[in-house]
Design goal:
Blueprint lengths: L6 E2 L3 E5 L5 H8 L2 H6 L8 H19 L3 E6 L5 E8 L7 E7 L8 H15 L5 E7 L3 H9 L3 E7 L6 E8 L6
Parallel strand pairs: 5-6
Antiparallel strand pairs: 1-2, 2-3, 3-4, 4-5, 6-8, 7-8
Helix pairs in contact: 1-3
Length: about 180
């Protein structure tokens, strides 16, 4: 049993991503949309995916109690995507992010998962303001962020990058929709 909190919605289980999710993470990180909108992480084997989880996801989970969550459909236990709360370099505050396999897009799963993590971030982890970043071309993510109550704030460039990203923000003064 995990020391860290998992979450449930009507249709989903969100559990901290662990090494047992390596095959799924390998698949997700190598989808065309991930590479286009998030970037190539040079994860070329399941073993490299396991290392990626250990290096990129687990340290923050141990430090803050939250990080990346694997999104699992309750009906068949399909691993569909990830959603997480991130202490990301170059972003002041905590950033919410999500990515799903294309077979599970446009079904409301990303909204359901992100809405639950937004709620948990505010109510359970005491995060007063959440940020989100997305590529200018990623209109689907922009629409989802707006539906979640985020407001566009400005363009940003993260460290070690040249790409301008859109920065959105949700503050606790807004009601959780």
């Amino acid at each position: 049993m995990s020391l860290y909190r998992s979450f449930e919605t009507e249709r989903l289980i969100l559990k901290p991503t662990s090494e047992e999710d390596a095959a799924f993470i390998f698949e997700l990180l190598n989808t065309p949309k991930w590479k286009k909108f998030i970037g190539d992480r040079n994860v070329n084997t399941i073993e490299e995916a396991k290392n990626y989880i250990q290096i990129k996801f687990r340290p923050q989970l141990k430090r803050l109690g939250y990080s990346t969550y694997t999104v699992i459909r309750k009906t068949d236990h399909a691993k569909m995507g990830i959603c997480g709360l991130y202490d990301r370099e170059g972003i002041e505050g905590i950033d919410i992010g999500f990515a799903f396999l294309s077979a599970y897009e446009h079904m409301g799963y990303a909204f359901e998962a992100a809405h639950e993590l937004k709620r948990a971030g505010i109510e359970e982890f005491g995060i007063a303001s959440l940020k989100a970043i997305t590529a200018k071309e990623n209109v689907s993510s922009q629409k989802l962020l707006i539906k979640l109550g985020f407001i566009f704030k400005k363009l940003v460039i993260l460290p070690n990058s040249e790409e301008e990203l859109l920065l959105y923000e949700f503050t606790n003064e807004h009601s959780i929709k």
